[in-house]
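Appendix B. Raw example, untouched.
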Amino acid sequence: MNSVTVDFKSRKPLCDQLVDNFSDMIFNGMIAPGDQMPSVRSLAADLAINPNTIQKAYTELERRGIIYSIPGRGSFAEQELSELIDKYKSDAKRQITEALKNGFSAGMTVSEIQAVISDVSKELINANE
């Protein structure tokens, strides 16, 4: 499993960083369906953060249906993500549509919107490399 990192200088809470990091790793196949997640204690020790922060992130991931827990055995990446991925894509499409409507309402041109999409896409691609 690829290593999980947190940015202590970021304004984003550590718990949210962990949720985003693990979500990305699971959705992008870096953590395979059914793979065991690192234990709360070992991850807390590796990252030098409070175990409660890790537990809070795992609880949120479980609430979202991205991982599941088996008492006494640990947490695991959800094995069937296709419905969840479809829901996330549908939500993203809805949010993008709303943003486009807002942009057009604010007087943005198609080329201005395309430039924003291009710039953001490049930033995201560079951030994930």
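End of appendix B.
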